[in-house]
Amino acid sequence: MLINIQVGDVLEVAANVLISTANPWLNLSGGVNGAILSAVGPTIQEELHTYLHCQGISAVPVGTVVQSEAGNLPFECILHAVAIDPFYDSSVELVRETIVAGLDLAINAGAKTISTPTLATGYGPMSIADFGTAVAPLANEPKFDEISLTIVVRSEEHRSELFEAISAARVSHRR
């Protein structure tokens, strides 16, 4: 998998699929989710709450990825990835598992290009470097060879931090 790092607004980075951060209640309440709600209006929020209602649950388990329409955003769909628990805790392992679930779902949807913010680093406890550590080993997974992942960060400082973490994780993973 080719990993790109870009500074900007994740909602403006065109890709086949956006893997967006989500909370267990699938509420579009802040951060990237709040931006989705502002950009698209209530339709995606209604779709996510309908999903919960149809499943007979009020929240999804940690690690779940739920697909929705993308509205007027430059994606074929949005994958809402729950990489935090109900107390907004997370780990490198949980983020990696959640990203893998999202990438698998994206591939099954026919995606070749995927964009994502750094999951669990806003309201969650993870650092940008932790996210890099979680994602780096996936670059060498054969099942992801045909896709590219663009990780979108908000500053040049975050881009540098993420690049260094991914580079360091790749070196230590090869040992």
Topology:
Layout: E1 2-7, E2 17-22, H1 31-40, H2 43-55, E3 65-68, E4 77-82, H3 92-108, E5 113-116, H4 128-135, E6 148-153, H5 156-174
Parallel strand pairs: 1-6, 2-4, 2-5, 5-6
Antiparallel strand pairs: 3-4
EC number: 3.5.1.-
Domain Macro: 1-171
Protein name: O-acetyl-ADP-ribose deacetylase
Amino- and carboxy-terminal Cα gap: 20 Å
CATH architectural category: 3-Layer(aba) Sandwich
Structural class, by secondary structure, is alpha/beta
CATH homologous superfamily, by name?
A: Leucine Aminopeptidase, subunit E, domain 1
* CATH first level: Alpha Beta
Percent range for helical residues?
Answer: 25-40%
SSE topology string:
EEHHEEHEHEH
Count the strands? 6
Computed Rg: 15 Å
- Strand line-up of the largest beta sheet: 1-6-5-2-4-3
Oligomer: single chain
Percentage beta strand: 15-25%
**What's the tally of helices?**
5
Question: What characteristic shape results from the CA principal axes?
Answer: globular
CATH topology: Leucine Aminopeptidase, subunit E, domain 1
Number of separate domains: 1
Arithmetic mean pLDDT:
95
Low-confidence stretches: none
Feature tags:
single chain, alpha/beta, Leucine Aminopeptidase, subunit E, domain 1, 5 helices, 6 strands, 18% strand, globular, hydrolase activity, Macro_dom, EC 3.5.1.-, Macro_dom-like
